Amino acid sequence: MREEITLGGWRPIGAAPYDLPLQLAVIERGEVNALAFPCLRTEYGWKNASTGAAVSVSPTHWRPWSG
Hints:
Strand order of the largest sheet: 1-6-2-3
């Protein structure tokens, strides 16, 4: 199965790797709402890669962090 990549390099959240800095977004009706800080996927959910704080968002897409 090929992974869908959208304009801007966004990928479906289910394919997000663990323990790598990622940019998260919620994409609804073609509108991208991206977080401005890197996040890590853990077995317990998402956390801010810089602070370690839990991130309470339900992202739909991800891409590698380039900041």
